[in-house]
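# nightly structure sweep
# worker-07 picked up a monomer target from the shared queue
# config: single-sequence mode, recycle default, output format = structure tokens
# input follows
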Amino acid sequence: GNLQINYSSYFGNVHYGYGEQLMGTEGTIEVLNRQDLYFYPEAYNGAAQTPCTANVTGAGALNQSLTVSYANNTNAGTATASATYGGDANHESSSDSKTFYIAKAASSTVVSVPGGQAFTYDGLEHPAAVSVTGAGGLAFAPSPMYGCGRVPKDVADSDCVASYAYAGDANHDGSSGSITYAIGKAPSRPELYTPM
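# output follows
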């Protein structure tokens, strides 16, 4: 039988659809994926990626959907899609597979200071907080690095940079974030006492 594969891909708000009737030798199935058509890879999101659909047609009004099987289609890397038509009394069986790519997801690293990184000296340390997040449940709060070697507290710590660089993992690209402290002098309150 001949196989028709349909895909859709979204670029912003514009939708593109594609369907091709493969009129090769009876018994040949070619499985395509939308990456072939648009060079637009899937992106890791923590869930199984299933971008392909398959339909087999043939002489005598053969026209039915096929189940597409996947392998390695959750994590970033190369995944496989395959479809098989078992044949019937009038049509030969056939099968084929195709690889597609799942790209790493972006990560986000945010460095912040509760109350703000600009403040007036108050004698207290003002530690920074780091949040690293990403698709598929990536979420953790590592300790920041301080360019001044300590948690900023004094006016002399102004311009100290708190930062963190996430190197990424098998499913996420790396990211980094930083903030710069600005610490102002506290006002003084002179008091004059006179003898009684």
